[in-house]
Amino acid sequence: MKSSIAFALAAANAVSAHTTFQSFVIDGKDVTKGVQVPSNGNNPILDVTSTAMICNGGKMGTDFVEYKAGSDITFQWHHNNPATIQGDADEPIAKSHQGPVMVYMAKASTNGEGAVWTKIFEEGLTAGKFAVQKFIDNKGKITVTLPNLEDGEYLIRPEMIGL
Q1: 3-class SS at 54?
Q2: Please, where are the H alpha helices in the chain?
Q3: Distances in whole angstroms, Cα of residue 3 to Cα of each of 21, 100, 153, 160
Q4: Which one of 35, 63, 66, 80 is separated from 29 by 20 to 30 angstroms, measured CA to CA?
């Protein structure tokens, strides 16, 4: 199987509870450049019906990266710019923003519009610990195994929800 993905990050910033998606790694290789949609900052999008929920307003990445089913992808967020994290008590996210973490994929040809997203990962509350706490413990990183999908180009959307 040969597929490629661009990172829509539609909700990575939108509902990320004051943290900003910074980078991602596939099978140990940083592949952020060209496929990530730039951040809108670490504030939530308040109108979830706006186009800002789709790739930060419909702006797609400029490139795709190839992957194989079973590849591990690591997403990394920071509270603000990585250069300012030292001494930031809310790095990578304020401890009060507990909640689930999900990752979705959609065919790139859909532009991420409508009910086209398929959830490939979800972690919520396990043994009294929210997924966001695990994310904090792992210094802002979440690793997901990519599924076996039909060949093609895909968007991927990691998101965190602070409850």
Answers
A1: coil
A2: 55-58, 131-137
A3: 23, 27, 6, 25
A4: 80
Tell me the C-alpha distance between 133 and 159, whole Å.
14
Q: Cβ of 6: how many Cβ atoms within 10 Å?
A: 22
Hey, CA dihedral for 103, 128, 134, 44, is it positive or negative?
Answer: positive
| Gap between the Cα atoms of 26 and 38, Å rounded | 19
Burial 107-123 (b: 16+ CB within 10 A, else e): bbeeebeeeebeebbeb
How far is Cα 153 from Cα 5, in angstroms, rounded to an integer?
Answer: 5
Domains plus CATH for the chain? 3-160 (2.70.50.70)
- pLDDT tens, residue by residue, 95-138: 788 889 999 988 888 877 888 889 999 999 999 999 888 888 88
Q: Between residues 130 and 21, which one has the greater pLDDT?
A: 130
Tokens found for residue 7: 């990172």
Say how far residue 160 (Cα) sits from the centre of its chain.
8
This prediction's pTM: 0.79
- For the chain, how many residues are written? 163
4, burial (CB in 10 Å: exposed 0-12, middle 13-18, buried 19+): middle
